[in-house]
């Protein structure tokens, strides 16, 4: 047994001092005092917080995104995730045009199986909505995929409104959830054309061509479609105050079943970053783009007021040198996305330390994603019988994020120089000790999570 002695156990009912006992891949005791035996592995975690392992429900590992391959593989990405305290990712398996959904799922299993330090589940992104795809939806559900994604932007991926409505109806029938990339792609294309015509070719053209109105309009449209179909939706990577207004309007109508995700970049970084010299602004080219300080303030308040259900990263890493710099003469050729899977727990716990408590962190980064994406209570809670995914957080350590000390396989971090309060002292994945003091032990206990 692994015995974590005398920690602050972060439970939905409160924070209690006691022992947590892991037997193989499961939790067998939560709280109280455990009488250790000679062959037990006892770790004193006095003064440390014991969280259910954090879950990042939005990543893109080892993925072709239309312009390039992401820099992190499942191997490097899940190792980095675990080093930061994340024990499960939910990655976007993506159907290319001409591919069936089972083919796409097989392909993602080939990329991930046997290589992962953290657990992994898959959403399925649908790019080719045809008769075969419709016929394969139930097979996805049977294979453990209960969440799907469609896009309103990106020409190689996006579906039109009629197709989106039909996807929603299928998803309702299999009791799934549809995650949607909410940006109006037609508008984005037109605004990009206007920027380039006006001679704006640098990274600053990226946010100018994707204003918050593009997000808000798409969110509003999606909510009406979901109401028509009576299907559950997930608004991913919410980035703007205007987008939040669209969410609130839909919630006020009271008809839509909806959860809302945002990401650290939209809670911490503003659009002045696009003006960094020497093309460094390209580091922040992700969609939706970074917004104004006012948006950050509004979204942070929404997190504190319980309007946001989950915080994920949208980890989609590209190197600045050799990948993003292909767009040096035209910002529309900069691969979209940024890294974050390693740093989310530290960033969120530090930047909200005076506004949220440890139970809130567990809710937003573990319990919430487990509930929304069909993993609760197997994951997302410290409970007898739940999986032995545990993050022991040492609040006494202060350290600084840098490209030099990260495990993400990418040549920068958007959070360079950010001072973090706290670090994972121990991370267990399926009962195996995967990380000590923020460094990997070298094991790869990550398993596929059938949901
Ligand atoms: O820029 C981003 N976010 N790239 C990843 C794909 C997506 O839109 O989620
Ligand atoms: Zn997206
Ligand atoms: Zn994404």
TrEMBL record:
Pfam family, one: Amidohydro_1
CDD domains per the UniProt record, alphabetical: D-HYD (cd01314)
InterPro entries, per the entry: Amidohydro-rel, Hydantoinase/dihydroPyrase, Metal-dep_hydrolase_composite, Metal_Hydrolase, Metallo-dep_Hydrolases_sf
Cofactor: Zn(2+)
Record EC number: 3.5.2.2
Name of protein: Dihydropyrimidinase
Parts of the chain that traverse the membrane: none
Record domain Amidohydrolase-related: where: 49-433
Family according to the record: Belongs to the metallo-dependent hydrolases superfamily. Hydantoinase/dihydropyrimidinase family.
Domain of life of the source: Bacteria
Keywords (A to Z) from UniProt: Hydrolase, Metal-binding
GO molecular function: dihydropyrimidinase activity; metal ion binding
Residue numbers carrying N6-carboxylysine: 149
GO cellular component: cytosol
Gene3D superfamilies, alphabetized: Metal-dependent hydrolases, Urease, subunit C, domain 1
Modification after translation (UniProt): Carbamylation allows a single lysine to coordinate two divalent metal cations.
């Amino acid at each position: 047994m692994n015995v974590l002695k005398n920690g602050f156990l972060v439970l939905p009912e409160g924070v209690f001092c006691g022992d947590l006992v892991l037997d193989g891949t499961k939790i067998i005791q939560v709280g109280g005092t455990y009488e250790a035996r000679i062959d037990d592995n006892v770790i004193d975690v006095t003064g440390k917080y014991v969280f259910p392992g954090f879950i990042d429900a939005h990543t893109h590992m080892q993925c072709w995104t239309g312009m390039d391959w992401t820099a992190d593989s499942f191997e490097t990405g899940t190792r980095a995730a675990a080093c930061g305290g994340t024990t499960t990712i939910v990655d976007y398996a993506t159907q290319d045009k001409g591919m069936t959904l089972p083919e796409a799922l097989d392909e993602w299993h080939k990329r991930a199986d046997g290589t992962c330090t953290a657990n992994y589940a898959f959403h399925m992104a649908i790019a080719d909505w045809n008769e075969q795809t419709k016929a394969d939806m139930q097979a996805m559900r049977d294979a453990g995929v209960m969440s799907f994604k469609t896009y309103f932007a990106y020409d190689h991926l996006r579906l039109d409104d009629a197709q989106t409505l039909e996807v929603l109806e299928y998803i309702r029938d299999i009791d799934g959830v549809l995650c949607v990339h909410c940006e109006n792609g037609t508008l984005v294309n037109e605004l990009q054309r206007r920027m380039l015509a006006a001679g704006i070719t640098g990274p600053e053209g990226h946010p100018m061509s994707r204003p918050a109105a593009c997000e808000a309009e798409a969110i509003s449209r999606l909510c009406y479609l979901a109401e028509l179909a009576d299907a559950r939706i997930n608004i991913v990577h919410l980035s703007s105050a205007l987008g939040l207004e669209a969410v609130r309007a839909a919630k006020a109508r009271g008809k839509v079943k909806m959860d809302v995700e945002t990401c650290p970049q939209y809670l911490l970084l503003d659009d002045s970053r696009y003006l960094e010299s020497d093309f460094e602004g390209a580091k922040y080219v992700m969609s939706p783009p970074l917004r104004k300080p006012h948006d950050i303030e509004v979204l942070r308040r929404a997190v504190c007021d319980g309007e946001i259900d989950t915080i994920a990263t949208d980890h989609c890493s590209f190197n600045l040198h050799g990948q993003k710099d292909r767009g040096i003469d035209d910002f529309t050729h900069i691969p979209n996305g940024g890294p974050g899977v390693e740093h989310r727990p530290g960033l969120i716990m530090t930047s909200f330390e005076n506004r949220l408590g440890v139970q809130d962190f567990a809710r937003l980064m573990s319990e919430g994603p487990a509930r929304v994406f069909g993993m609760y209570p197997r994951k997302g809670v410290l409970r007898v019988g739940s999986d032995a995914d545990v993050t022991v957080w040492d609040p006494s350590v202060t350290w600084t994020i840098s490209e030099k000390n990260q495990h993400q396989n990418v040549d920068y971090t958007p959070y360079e120089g950010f001072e973090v309060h706290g670090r994972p002292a121990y991370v267990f994945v399926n009962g195996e000790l995967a990380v000590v003091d923020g460094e990997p032990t070298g094991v790869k206990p990550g398993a596929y999570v059938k949901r």
